Prior knowledge:
The complex is a heterodimer of chains A (146) and B (114).
Chain A lengths: L4 E6 L5 H14 L4 H22 L7 E8 L3 E8 L26 H9 L2 E7 L3 E9 L2 H5 L2
Helix pairs in contact in A: 1-2, 2-3
Chain B lengths: L2 E3 L7 E4 L2 E3 L4 H13 L4 E5 L3 E4 L1 H16 L3 E5 L3 H9 L7 E3 L2 H9 L2
Amino acid sequence: MPDECRLTVPGRLDQLIIISEFIAQAARQAGLDERTVFHVQMAVDEACTNVIQHAYQGIEDGEITLACRRTDDTFVITIQDHGRPFDPTTVPPPDLGADLDVRRLGGLGLYFMHRLMDEVHFEFNAETGNTVTMIKRIAPQSQDDR
Amino acid sequence: MNGHASSYQPGVWVIEAGGRIDAMHAPVLEAALQRALAQGKYRLLVHLGQARYLSSHSLKALLVARQKARSHGGDLVLCCTPPRVQEILEITGLTQILSLYESEEEAASALASV
């Protein structure tokens, strides 16, 4: 894959399919196997949905910029927006215990991101906005596919 | 999103959830589930045979509907889950909560005995 693939789209739900196709293509070019491509697609979909529904809630003209790059043993995705600051520590983990309480399922998307990726980091900067960095470690068989 | 009475068991309502059900499309699934519940259909079978992707929003809609169905003495179960979708349910621990069946007939039988 090129050193870095980038995509900027309007922060709207109808763009999720475009984001998903972009990520799938970049992940395949980076040599990830189809199972891992699906995991990455899902984590990115959840991250971008959070941006659209929370950071850009009520904001019509926000943009989301995605960048992907491959290192020797990782696939790194950054997602940037200029919406409201997002502090993941304010989102309680979903309650998925035996006594499931659907009132406590708010953080399901965030939970999925952490389960599907090896690392997830959130950062807010007044100039650059919110940046989510997600890292997937690449298994040896995926590297052979390059 | 289509809903219809099960051809296998009376009293079981089948909703076919296909394609890519992300946050854009989850409200359609949610509406189909809530419509069925509002009509007193508490034995819900969600057929995922044609589903390519389920986001956390669609899974939340399933969990909310399941809780409501169970509170009325019914249940919500899934059938024909594609391998990729099933794997996501396993990774996220949702197979501990949602009941999955390989075929529509099996799922309908399980619901009929609720």
